[in-house]
Amino acid sequence: MQNEGHEGGERLQPIRQTTRVEAFTALLSIAKHELLISNFRYPLRIVSRFFGPLVWVAPFLIFGRALLGGADSQTLESLTGISHMPTFVIVGTIVTTISFTMLWLMSFAIRLESYRGTFESIYACPVSKFIFFMGKLMASSIWASFYIVGLLLLGVLVLNIQFVWTRFPEMILVIIMLFFAMFGFGLILAGMVLVYKESHTLLHFVDGLFSLIVPMAYPLAVLPEALQAVSRALPMTQAVIASRNLVIRGESLLVQSESIAILLAYIFIAIPLGYQFYMRMEGKAKKKGVLHKY
User: Fold this and answer.
1) What does the alpha-carbon distance between residue 35 and residue 129 come to, in Å, rounded to a whole number?
2) pTM across the whole model
3) Pairing of the two strands 11-13 and 2-4
4) CA distance 134 to 14
5) Cβ of 55: how many Cβ atoms within 10 Å?
6) Which of 28, 142, 190, 262 is buried deepest, with most CB atoms within 10 A?
7) What are the C-alpha distances in Å from 135 to residues 34, 109, 198?
8) Are 56 and 98 in contact (CB under 8 A)?
């Protein structure tokens, strides 16, 4: 390390910039740390990740059967072009739950380090916060894949879901795009949590809001027109619509131009804005003297 400036305090600078290989190694280490410490070290969490989908999706399926009188519905088909309710719900649940998992993990990315007592170590590392958050994103995507497997097993073995499996790789591509599209949201929430600390209150509000307006288990058409417009502007809604069109209706990815355009817009616009917002909030936390506080 070398020192710069003597008046107004010394400012420490790295001897050299971190190379790309070192940054990628750090990213992998962060993802590995998150998976081992938070998840894989507890076998019950792994088991619950497979059986959790049954508990989560059961109320939607039971209510749907009670309301529709069976698994198939002409009303649902008239609104969405899809008649099989369990398949409709499973796809929506896969996409939205992945989004919520990613939001929670990203928003708690820094806050969890305070819980674990590793906050100071994270800030002392010569790695940019962007690499740190990308490591968290990688861990989130791997952990969410267990949920996808659990829901698919439930759908195939119990619910007789009607997928066009040749389109499933294209759905996975949409989900990957969704992960990056939600990255900006995660950075914004992480910045707010860093300053205001009330993480659970904020995240429960955002989680509940998205659960209401994103068509996870019901058609978008049943919402008021104003909420439909808001919902269509969200990357989660576009990923749900595109995924259903792909694996249920059998449409090509090329036909999902509107959804793909919105997801790409979030990737290239929301990520830089979200990172800038996080850095601003970090600076605000430092000025207020609350950065290190629990």
Assistant:
1) 18
2) 0.81
3) antiparallel
4) 21
5) 9
6) 190
7) 8, 10, 24
8) no
